[in-house]
Automatic annotation (TrEMBL), chains A, B:
GO terms for molecular function: D-lactate dehydrogenase (cytochrome) activity; D-lactate dehydrogenase (NAD+) activity; FAD binding. Its EC number is 1.1.2.4. Its cofactor is FAD. Keywords: FAD, Flavoprotein, Oxidoreductase, Transit peptide. This is D-lactate dehydrogenase (cytochrome). InterPro entries: FAD-bd_oxidored_4_C, FAD-bd_PCMH, FAD-bd_PCMH-like_sf, FAD-bd_PCMH_sub2, FAD-linked_Oxase-like_C, Oxid_FAD_bind_N, Vanillyl_alc_oxidase_C-sub2. Belongs to the FAD-binding oxidoreductase/transferase type 4 family. It comes from the Bacteria. Residues 36-214 form the FAD-binding PCMH-type domain. It comes from Jeotgalibacillus malaysiensis.
Amino acid sequence: MSVTAFVESLHEFLQKDQISENETVREQHSVDESYHKGSITQVVVFPRSTEETSQILAAASKHVIPVVPFGLGTSLEGHVVPMQECVTIDFTEMNAVLEVSPDDLIVKVQPGVTRSQLNKELKKHGLFFSVDPGADATLGGMAATNASGTTSVRYGIMRDQVRDLEVVLASGEVIHTGSKAAKSSAGLHLNGLFVGSEGILGCITELTLKVYGIPEYEMAGRATFPSVENAVQAVVSLLQSGIPIARVELLDEISLKQLNHHQKTDYPEIPTLFMEFHGNEAGLAQDVDFMKEIVSMYDCEAIEFVTNNAERNRLWEARHNLAYSFIHGYPGRKMMVTDVCVPISELAGAVRHAQEQLSELNLIGGVTGHVGDGNFHVILMIDLADEEEKARANTFNESLVAYGLERNGTSTGEHGVGYGKQKYMEQEFGAALGVMQQIKAALDPQGILNPGKLLPAKGENVYESVIKS
Amino acid sequence: MSVTAFVESLHEFLQKDQISENETVREQHSVDESYHKGSITQVVVFPRSTEETSQILAAASKHVIPVVPFGLGTSLEGHVVPMQECVTIDFTEMNAVLEVSPDDLIVKVQPGVTRSQLNKELKKHGLFFSVDPGADATLGGMAATNASGTTSVRYGIMRDQVRDLEVVLASGEVIHTGSKAAKSSAGLHLNGLFVGSEGILGCITELTLKVYGIPEYEMAGRATFPSVENAVQAVVSLLQSGIPIARVELLDEISLKQLNHHQKTDYPEIPTLFMEFHGNEAGLAQDVDFMKEIVSMYDCEAIEFVTNNAERNRLWEARHNLAYSFIHGYPGRKMMVTDVCVPISELAGAVRHAQEQLSELNLIGGVTGHVGDGNFHVILMIDLADEEEKARANTFNESLVAYGLERNGTSTGEHGVGYGKQKYMEQEFGAALGVMQQIKAALDPQGILNPGKLLPAKGENVYESVIKS
């Protein structure tokens, strides 16, 4: 392994401006939005084609240089943070929308296209892309981490939208994992395997994705409840009723307080559901009546609907700005966001547990959740200079994940594993972790693809459980 | 490899009545509903628990005996047909519904539970399981082949319903592929990998599946069109409009003729869509107006709706009996059903191509399709004693698959690969087939799991392309 020889070989097929050893560029490409820290990448490359990506991987394979793929660095568990000397591949120059097929309701894009860039293009055709993780991430990154968000309760997660990926393997070989067909029972399901594989099996160079017609009618609303339990139980009933919920977000007392303070809103500071429904006007009018009946059974204190776009956008903007409300509210502290997903029948208990732990461990934080999926986040604001507080935050995280796993949930509903959650993989998967490691070993025998992420190396399942700073 | 020693070892942990070497039993377990023929299994075992299944696999592994998992033998591409000496594991004695969780909208079942058995149980809770492949298959078999059917356009395919599988690996080791959480970004996506793996990676011993609330209101309808092109284009527009189509099936002239003749129905014998919509009454009333507007743009000749259950059931019963109408209409001939899925923009052309080829090759058959997914079947009625006719049927199949693959479709939308479609895997997947073979080799190094199915063995990609009889 010689980085110098590797970088020299890059010059054989890349232009000068596609290779950067500049310290600032390297540092910018060695962090994400999480609190995880690692080492600094040796070199950043900017491929403009699949062929160039293939050449980079082939060279990395030859010189045994670790490879970290990079979109816009919005990951939340250290996915793009180098754990050793490596090359970082920045895909933002591969950012073309290659094909929009309204008849097939699919689109073909390069990995550096962002969510908002795609939606701007799709709007011309009356279409939209459904996955909204909050950040304006690249679609390559969203596929690599199996992103999801507020609309997943209706339209599904990133994995549900992927028809085909073009992937460059460790060797430089290029494969396609699927087709343009809406469904298939042919072969092993490589689409599903590569989505969420966090760069440890290959680099995504093209995506064919499912898109949707913009709904005829959209309606948003807010419902307040005396307790988190009541709010969650109301959502369970709404889901069972078949009412077409497009989004349903829970905000707890502390989150609403933070929101009101920093967004100048005046929401009641009690457990609240932010909701959205897609359908036609007559159908939604009937649903509203039914909904009011359902939520009243769970002592809903007030329910209000808005149908005009400006009001609807204001509601979701407030929700999306929740994290920033915390960040701006606590200068000098760093956000540490957890992400557990439990069976929905366990959600109220899990949220209550989180609130109790926050109070017991004397931590600053609020709970918010995609309750339709049983997925929730706790936004903690941590003083990274305070070792003792960091230890308490770590205890909190451990306790929350353990609570979720004991109830047959998962350690991460949407943020992914990256560096931060590898230590929980053995507890979550048991013997199945061995199967994952076998697949990794078969497809990346030298272990050059994003090492130190997603899967603990064989025989190395117990990671130190401290927050690096 | 000694079958005798293997069978002897089975007696160490199974009861006598769980092991059958009876010739009739063996023969019954060596065929499916397809025209594919192989050899006769050596022994059939009937495990009653995961532990027994694990012991069977461990013994098979030790004695290097091929293993074929078996549900009710309703597969359509020879999935359960032995290709060499083997043990067949019949899972029908593992047929308990283990858990129904209405709050979580999930159910846990053993692999031998059938679709109708599950729905009978779920009805008590106001719930239903969505995947309907026609046959009353076992859920283990449906997961193994990634089944789908008429309702997939709304609720998704089998893979979309699986939250967790308990799987016994070749070694006898037991793993869980997921959790009860509605979504997860942890680990590699083993759920998706094992669904549709046709028994070549492991045997499914338990399934946790997503279920749905029975819709408030269901409405079915029929619309007739002057051509297949017009019918398909109308479906594209309906999909883009966001109208909640729960089923949309195309029947061609010949299929309707066959149906009328054998079901005593009097449907017009022109291209027809059978449709179903789920929602609330007011919403569907508004959708009907919109729908009429849309289909009229494609020269719809007549559109009729039924809302009472009896009439609705009659419509879908007719559709489900289509295959039997062909079978009963041609005694002495064997049904050979193809199954291609293309991007929907290519569907009209593909159906036209199929109709032309049927006529050119002088074959008896009709076209029917899940047009919302771009998936269609051609039901051929073949005289298996006529070698020349079999060759023409084979030419037809090859031509149809080639047409689909050239247009970025898939060789099978729902029936799976089994024995019958292995020969197309290299053409469909190219270099990605190598990745699938590497995964298979890593997880089943002795190659004992359902050999000769799904993936052509390495270096053996060109299969004889004849119909065995």
